Amino acid sequence: MTETTSHAGREIARQPRAWAQACELLPQVADLLPRPGERVAVLGCGTSWFMAAAYAALREAAGAGETDAFAAGQWPAARGYDRVVAISRSGVTTEVLRAVGATAAPVTAITSVAGSPVEAEAEAAIVLDFAGEASVVQTVFATTALTLLRASLGDSVEAAAVQAARILGGEHGLDPAVEAASQFTFVGSGWGAGIAAEAALKMRESARVWTESYPQLEYRHGPISIAEPGRVVWIFGEPAPGLVDDVVGTGATIVNDDLDPVADLVRVQRLGVALAGRQGFDPDRPRHLTRSVILSPASPTSPAGAASPAGAAP
């Protein structure tokens, strides 16, 4: 299966257009999103959690208000917030529904499926149905949700869209040493740390590659010990002073280009699909994963291989 024939490959290619649609939608839904000064929590699972973390960092950096991000299964329901934003592609993930149901604050859900349970549980919902996906692996929905949230902060997303389109057109190619690497560590600072975590997840899901992710300044506190020739350190955003020199000294290959982190994530998504194809893996259906995790009423955590009903929306 090639990138162009997989659902994931086609969905990766749809991202710049979906981002534009999100920006077009923003004036209609802006009142449903956090207002300046509100104390906000953002939650999700997996990829959605990483997008929540990126948005939380962006919102605080913009001076819009205190913002925390949580994995939905770790939601501190007793903590007080003015508003909660729940990100759930399918709208049926158990941990998200439990978290939404346990909070007294008004909840805005961002999902790709109209009429889903999370929409019914939340006070308001933003449905990005144009960013819906067939692949188990999230790409277009996650980056589109983040684009909407970035735009709501007044953050320009045009450069990311232009760069992503160029990447999809063949620019900003990767060194062959990157494609041949046996291990990848992704690092980022600020909101880029959330993107780094998502990059590592994409490569693990798609290509079963050994990946790790860290905030940039944490990387030198131990994780750098695994860097060596044949491995990659991929930096999202501006590198911290001295970081590049430290990595060069290990012999690892560095990816450090002047790209918007979300545009750079597109390169990781494509690389994951390409590596999966070379090994005969299905990038649309990674092993042990399903589109949604739905737990039994008595189950506090996800059992291995927890599955959604057949045909459930992504």
Automatic annotation (TrEMBL):
Can you cite a GO biological process for this protein? carbohydrate derivative metabolic process
CDD domains xref list: SIS_GlmS_GlmD_2
InterPro entries of this UniProt entry? GlmS/FrlB_SIS (IPR035490), SIS_dom (IPR001347), SIS_dom_sf (IPR046348)
* Biased composition regions of type Low complexity, renumbered to the chain: 296-314
- Write down the PROSITE patterns for this protein, in alphabetical order: SIS
Q: Where is the SIS domain?
A: 29-170
The answer to keyword Ligase applying to this record is no
- State the Gene Ontology terms under molecular function: carbohydrate derivative binding; isomerase activity
Key words of the record: Isomerase
Segments carrying the region annotation (Disordered) are 282-314
PANTHER family referenced in this protein's UniProt entry, alphabetically: GLUCOSAMINE--FRUCTOSE-6-PHOSPHATE AMINOTRANSFERASE, ISOMERIZING
Name used for this protein in its record: Sugar isomerase
Source organism: Pseudofrankia asymbiotica
Q: Taxonomic lineage of this organism?
A: Bacteria, Bacillati, Actinomycetota, Actinomycetes, Frankiales
